[in-house]
Amino acid sequence: MYAVVLLVCCSWVALLCPSVQAYENLALKKPAWQSSTDISGYTEAERAVDGRYTDLSVLGGQCAASGRGQTAEWRVDLGGVKYIHHVFIQYATGNEVWDENNFWTTFFLGTSVYISNTTNKEDGVLCFRDTIYTPATIPNPVNITCPYLGRYVIYYNNRTHPPYPEGYSEYAYTVLCEVEVYGCPTPERYGENCSLLCPENCNCDVIGNTCVECVSGYKGHLCYEECDDHTYGLECNNSCGKCSAGVKCDHVTGSCQNGCIVGMYGDRCDKECDNKTYGLDCRESCGNCSNGEPCHHVNGNCQFGCDDGVFGLKCITVCPTGRYGANCAKTCGPNCQGCNRLNGVCEFGCHPEWTGSYCEKRSFTIIWNDRGDETHLIG
Ligand SMILES: *[C@@H]1O[C@H](CO)[C@@H](O)[C@H](O)[C@H]1NC(C)=O
Ligand SMILES: *[C@@H]1O[C@H](CO)[C@@H](O)[C@H](O)[C@H]1NC(C)=O
Ligand SMILES: *[C@@H]1O[C@H](CO)[C@@H](O)[C@H](O)[C@H]1NC(C)=O
Ligand SMILES: *[C@@H]1O[C@H](CO)[C@@H](O)[C@H](O)[C@H]1NC(C)=O
Ligand SMILES: *[C@@H]1O[C@H](CO)[C@@H](O)[C@H](O)[C@H]1NC(C)=O
Ligand SMILES: *[C@@H]1O[C@H](CO)[C@@H](O)[C@H](O)[C@H]1NC(C)=O
Ligand SMILES: *[C@@H]1O[C@H](CO)[C@@H](O)[C@H](O)[C@H]1NC(C)=O
User: Fold this and answer.
1) According to the UniProt entry, where is the signal peptide (predicted)?
2) Are residues 112 and 212 in the same domain?
3) What's the rounded Cα separation, in Å, for the pair 272 and 352?
């Protein structure tokens, strides 16, 4: 209840709530990765998030360093999508004065920083790419303002498009003594100094003071409203399927709590029974509709009549004696003792004196006369 009151109060004062939090280093001791690691054994990726950067020599045990390559990449996983405000990077200096004569400037030039929700930088946003610095002007450490929501902070450098600008190293390396990612530790806090409280079902703009978009299942200016009946998902853009008894679907996922109406299936009841099934939970099997067509997903009726040997709306009743073919529309031959219901073949025999598959021909009767000759009589 308290939380609700607080949220309502915040909404009335343009979302400005008393600040209880400040930016924190969200990267501290979080899992880190780099594209390769120098063989020394002192430069694993985690060393850039160990909180220590008093020794800025590469092998001092406080820096992450890759092997040489055309590209070099390092990243930290914040463990979830967070509001990031800025990224602080302390590059190696070899514990020497950072000026144009410092050996390490050449490796830092051309750096990029991305924020992404996946481990792939291309899925995220580019916050910074150095195209202007020279060994004389590149700062170290540096603060990169990067006000985005994201999970991975990715440091990237490349030496892929020679000739390189003056002062650039020939190969790319990560030589990061510390990367600190400052942002708000809890997802509902955002804005400068995390002083704003984002409405519960909203994704807020990190620097602005507005609700940028509602999370899935909510709508309205501050996202307090659940999607209306029969809509769900992001921006309530999806229509519910056909839940049983007109029950409203879950406003976030669209799933139907109590199953589907007759003829529909799937978690969201948005699929008609298929694979020649119909009825409640698609538990019934269609009869033999003509040409193998599926039956109606609700009532099981065949739309275009029946296949050979069956009749009725659902095409499940077999032909009565004396009938055969599609919809049992054909009559067995007049001299047939009941025919095959599929093809009309008189498989149970013919009336006397008739023969042929359909008993359509007169049979021979062979009569022996007393001379031993045969007399053929027809019919
Ligand atoms: C990360 O995901 C959130 C939604 O969870 C989205 O608002 C944000 O823009 C995404 N960040 C990036 C960098 O794609
Ligand atoms: C980086 O930003 C933080 C907070 O705004 C500030 O305290 C710090 O002095 C800045 N560092 C540099 C190197 O600009
Ligand atoms: C780094 O790659 C970009 C393209 O992604 C290219 O424009 C740039 O010149 C490359 N830098 C170097 C130093 O190779
Ligand atoms: C954020 O904190 C800084 C330093 O404490 C302060 O100067 C600034 O006014 C604060 N900003 C807001 C919006 O509270
Ligand atoms: C929701 O629908 C509107 C209007 O058709 C469209 O502009 C918007 O891009 C859709 N949003 C999503 C998340 O699909
Ligand atoms: C029909 O078959 C497809 C593929 O085998 C399957 O994914 C689907 O669930 C089946 N439909 C029903 C109603 O069982
Ligand atoms: C329906 O068709 C199948 C396959 O063609 C067949 O095996 C089955 O006997 C038929 N059922 C009836 C009642 O004719």
Assistant:
1) 1-22
2) no
3) 53
Mutate which of 13, 182, 190, 193 for ligand 4? The one with the most ligand atoms within 8 Å of its CB, which is 193
The pLDDT score that the predictor gives to residue 117 is 96
Enumerate residues 6+ apart whose C-beta is below 8 A from 257: 243, 247, 250
Q: Which two tokens stand for residue 329?
A: 């529309």
pLDDT per residue over 283-336, tens digit each? 999 999 999 999 999 999 999 999 999 999 999 999 999 999 999 999 999 999
Whether pTM > 0.70 for this model: the answer is: no
Q: Write down the residue that tokens 């929700």 correspond to.
A: 117
| Distance from residue 281's CA to the centre of ligand 6 (Å) | 12
- Residue of the CA atom closest to atom 1 of ligand 5: 237
Is ligand 3 within 6 A of the CB of residue 161?
A: yes
Distance of CA 62 to the CA centre of its chain: 39
Which tokens hold the place of 39? 């063989």
User: What is the 190 CA–ligand 4 centroid distance (Å)?
Assistant: 13
Give me the domain span that covers residue 30.
Answer: 24-192
Whether 36 and 132 share a structural domain:
yes
Q: pLDDT tens, 59-93?
A: 999 999 999 999 999 999 999 988 898 999 999 99
Q: Which of 242, 270, 274 to mutate to test the pocket of ligand 6 (most atoms within 8 A of CB)?
A: 274
Residues 159, 247 within the same domain: no
